[in-house]
Amino acid sequence: MSIRNQMILGSTVSLLFAFQVHAADLNGAWANDLSVCSKIFVNKNNQMSFADNSDFYGSGFIINGNDIIGKAGKCRVTSRKIQENKIQLAAECATDIALSSDRFSLRVDSDDKITRLFPSMPGMEMQYYRCPR
């Protein structure tokens, strides 16, 4: 293997490792208000899921690897682009009535706080907090 190919392979492995680190760091249940975590999520058989009537108390989602699960649908992350503390995600999503390709922009504010950004709507942001297990 040439030096150039070794460098490319090394860069690719480093990049994949960075993706896995950030993906693992985002695993868990996320709510827009920490005080309502127990009303939005329940732990069933050692797995987080949505509580009945959770949408009365706030919004949230669960990240498990490449899966993002919301109350109304589920997305599978197909690609990531990481720049400093921002992550651009492309995903294939499904609800009971539709399939779609979506893009998400997240800013990692801390280990337990992320902000969803809406690039097409400057100033629009939604903060989410990691719920305790």
List keywords for this structure.
single chain; 133 residues; eight-stranded antiparallel barrel; 2 helices; 10 strands
Structure description:
- The structure is a single chain.
- With 133 residues, the protein is α+β, with helices and mostly antiparallel strands.
- It has one domain.
- The chain has 2 helices and 10 strands; from the N terminus they run αβαβββββββββ.
- The chain has helices at 3-25, 37-40, and strands spanning 28-31, 41-44, 47-50, 60-64, 67-70, 73-83, 86-95, 99-110, 113-117, 125-130.
- The strands form 2 sheets. An 8-stranded antiparallel β-barrel has the order 1-4-5-6-7-8-9-10. Strands 2-3 form a two-stranded antiparallel sheet.
- The longest helix is centred in the first third of the chain and has 23 residues, at 3-25.
- The termini are far apart.
Describe this structure in a few short sentences.
The chain is of the alpha+beta class and 133 residues long. The protein is 20% helix and 49% strand.
DSSP strand content: over 45%
List low-pLDDT spans: 1-24
Sum up the overall morphology in one term.
globular
How many distinct domains?
1
Q: What spatial order of strands do you see in the largest sheet? A: 1-4-5-6-7-8-9-10
Q: Tell me, rounded to a whole number, the average pLDDT.
A: 82
Helix content: 10-25%
Annotation, overall tally of beta strands? 10
- Termini separation comes to 46 Å
Largest pleated sheet: 8 strands, antiparallel, barrel
Number of helices: 2
Order of helices and strands: HEHEEEEEEEEE
What Rg is obtained from the alpha carbons, in whole angstroms? 17 Å
Structural class by SSE content = alpha+beta
